[in-house]
Design a protein that fits this description.
Ubiquitin-like (UB roll)
Length: about 80
């Protein structure tokens, strides 16, 4: 099955791409995907764990099982700003 993975801000820079198409065997969770991406792209190591993950625009935890065609976004923490 295939997933579309989206990265934003500094995470996109570390990944070397704003999006990737990733093939997975099945029954992979968001946590599995994080671990795999950090292994395959060493510049992401330690960074994805600090990101929120959204699957098809819904924020999820690491136990979410992924399905064919899912879009997974890794959202880095934001800071700063004055209201």
């Amino acid at each position: 099955m295939k997933l579309r993975v989206l990265f934003f801000a500094s995470i996109a820079d570390a990944a070397g791409a704003r999006s990737l198409e990733v093939a997975v065997a099945g029954r992979e969770t968001v946590a599995d995907l994080r671990k795999r991406l950090e292994s395959e792209r060493p510049r992401l190591s330690g960074k994805l764990g600090k990101c929120a993950a959204a699957v098809n625009t819904q924020v999820v935890d690491g136990s979410k099982v992924l399905a064919d065609g899912d879009e997974v976004a890794f959202l880095p923490p934001v800071s700063g700003g004055v209201a």
